[in-house]
Design a protein that fits this description.
This protein is an alpha/beta fold and 318 residues long. It contains 15 helices and 8 strands. Strands 1, 2, 3, 4, 5, 6, 7 and 8 form an 8-stranded mixed beta sheet that branches. Strand 2, helix 3 and strand 3 form a beta-alpha-beta unit. The longest helix has 13 residues. It starts with 15 loop residues before the first helix and ends in a 7-residue tail after the last helix.
Length: 318
């Protein structure tokens, strides 16, 4: 979910053709876009088949608003739900495909006040859902040194995690992104400070993952999503760093409800990377739901399943 086109919440969808091919769209199918962002992938899904319907969810208020504006022309073929996909409950609906485009969009990175990037001075925030209480400042200023070091090492794969955590505890409180990034740069060796990436990069990734519980909610999605699919339904996940991709790969391989479609992850083409440089780290994996017919005939029948979307959603989604 990367690639800003303007100052508004818009983005160039990552690997759209591979994602649509992976979903193997069915006429009249019902699809879940678990991270709708600005609506690019959902737009492609809805445009590809005239009777296809989409449930589009996102925890970011600005993303939902942008997607609603972009997809307004599809009317009741698309329904929206604001929240984290780990909290979503589809009720009796079953999907012919589920797409999750993980990570942070360019509008989130490039909006200074969101606090995702040290390129801009901003409060230490990093919340994808701004209704939640925990921010990056909460973690940096209140977690103990051991927890900080473990977070930087586990989520950021930062080999100097202990040194950086010690410096942070000695110098805190921190209030802004640039303040924190400068402190990290000061505490590492010169060779590290002038390396290929900024020395704060891995720490900021780790903080973002911790603030939003990204790996925890991904694990929840991986456990639940297969049961939300009709037999033959596809699960397509686009990840952007090795921690996510490793989880997806292992779960697809070990889940007896799924058949792996992509033996190796698909990556963005050279043309896609040229258009959207942040797509260079994207990896797309596809799995298919296996098993016999669903015992519930209302779920098994595609038209009845779609009817739930139009007017019979479960009370948990109202």
């Amino acid at each position: 979910m990367v690639g800003s086109e303007s100052g508004e919440f818009q983005h160039v969808s990552v690997m759209p053709e591979a994602a649509i091919a992976g979903l193997n769209l069915q006429p009249g199918g019902l699809y879940l876009d678990a991270t709708v962002g600005g609506g690019g992938h959902s737009d492609r899904i809805l445009a590809a088949q005239p009777e296809v319907q989409v449930v589009a969810i996102d925890q970011d208020e600005q993303a939902i608003a942008a997607a609603q504006a972009r997809l307004a022309g599809y009317g009741d073929r698309v329904q929206f739900w604001r929240g984290n996909f780990a909290d979503y409950q589809p009720g009796e609906m079953r999907f012919h495909g589920i797409l999750a485009d993980l990570g942070v969009s360019s509008p989130q990175f490039d909006t200074p006040e969101r606090g995702f990037s040290f390129r801009h001075e901003a409060d230490l925030d990093m919340r994808m859902d701004q209704r939640q209480a925990v921010t990056a400042a909460t973690i940096i200023n209140h977690w103990d040194e051991t927890d900080l070091a473990n977070t930087f090492y586990t989520y950021g794969e930062e080999r100097l995690s202990r040194r950086i955590a010690r410096a942070i505890v000695e110098q805190r409180p921190f209030h802004t992104t640039t303040e924190l990034a400068a402190a990290i740069a000061r505490c590492v060796p010169g060779s590290y400070r002038h390396g290929r990436i900024h020395p704060a990069t891995r720490v900021f990734q780790a903080l973002r993952i911790a603030v939003n519980g990204e790996l925890t909610v991904l694990e929840t999605l991986l456990q639940r999503a297969p049961d939300w699919l009709v037999p033959g339904g596809r699960l397509v996940i686009i990840s952007f760093h090795s921690l996510e991709d490793r989880m997806v790969k292992q779960h697809f391989r070990n889940d007896d409800r799924l058949r792996v479609i992509t033996k190796k992850p698909q990556v963005a083409t050279e043309a896609e990377v040229a258009e959207n440089v942040r797509s260079r780290s994207a990896k797309l994996r596809v799995a298919e739901r296996i098993g016999g017919e669903n015992p519930d005939p209302e779920i098994r029948d595609r038209k009845k399943s779609a009817a739930y979307l139009r007017g019979g959603k479960s009370s948990s989604q109202r």
